[in-house]
Specification:
The chain is of the alpha/beta class. 17% of the residues lie in helices and 25% in strands. It has a 9-stranded mixed β-sheet, sandwiched between helices. It has a two-stranded antiparallel ribbon with strand order 5-8. The C terminus is likely disordered.
């Protein structure tokens, strides 16, 4: 059997599509670039919506991209239970498309933020199998990353989604002062109720290459590979530090 194929959707304004493709390749999968105007997912096994500024973030981040022809197929793909990951702008698009609950608003500081943060993995999904409780150091770069649950409180996610990543300190404590953007409950990423659709604001693809000095994001992609190949989650000892 060949490598699992993972589609990376490219919108006008995407700028992290090649980074996501490289992370997938380093993890043992075959990335397939999918143009936003296409209505064919080319037989991929999973889909990644990468970061960037789709359609220039006009109106709202992700508000125009949700109407791209490819998103109709992504929605069908997700509803059929296949894995879909949205990173930063991809997370915003998934929320705008109704594939994830809630919305991403302007940072509470009203400023663009670009730095590394710690996030604690809260639940297991195809992208976080074997990682629950793990604390990862990942970069963020966004101005609209303040997550707001659909009812304004974390409790309103019950039945429609679940928290997967939470901003924390290096010891895994989700303290208010380490929240970089004002997200409700320090929420950095969520999943659909079924768990197959996941979105997060931090960028695991920018922390997945040993040559760049950090690999905390690699387990997220390695988890997807294990899921697609039907393997057990990676053992703790096998995960990069």
């Amino acid at each position: 059997m060949g490598r699992p194929k993972v589609g990376v959707v490219v919108f006008p304004g995407s700028l992290d599509d090649r980074d996501a493709a490289r992370a997938l390749h380093l993890s043992g999968m075959e990335p397939v670039l999918l143009w936003h105007a296409e209505r064919d997912l080319a037989g991929v096994d999973a889909v990644v919506l990468p970061g960037g500024f789709s359609y220039g973030d006009y109106l709202r981040a992700g508000a125009i991209a949700r109407f791209a022809p490819v998103m109709e197929k992504v929605a069908e793909f997700a509803q059929a239970g296949h894995p879909v990951l949205g990173i930063c702008n991809g997370f915003q698009i998934l929320c705008e498309a109704g594939l994830l609950p809630g919305a991403l608003a302007r940072n509470s500081s009203l400023r663009f933020i670009c730095r590394e943060v710690w996030v604690r993995v809260e639940e297991e999904t195809p992208f976080t199998a074997g990682l629950k409780g793990r604390v990862l150091r990942l970069p963020i770069k966004h101005s609209q990353g303040r997550y707001l649950p659909p009812g304004g409180s974390e409790e309103s996610l019950a039945g429609v989604g679940k928290v997967i990543f939470r901003y924390a300190d290096s010891l895994g404590e989700a303290r208010p002062e380490v929240n970089p953007n004002g997200s409700v409950g320090n929420i950095a990423g969520v999943a659909s109720a079924a768990g197959n659709v996941v979105g997060l604001m931090p960028h695991p693809e920018h922390a997945a290459d040993p040559e760049l000095g950090r690999t905390d994001g690699l387990p997220i992609f390695s988890s997807l590979l294990a899921h697609l190949e039907g393997k057990a989650p990676l053992a703790e000892a096998a995960l990069p530090r």
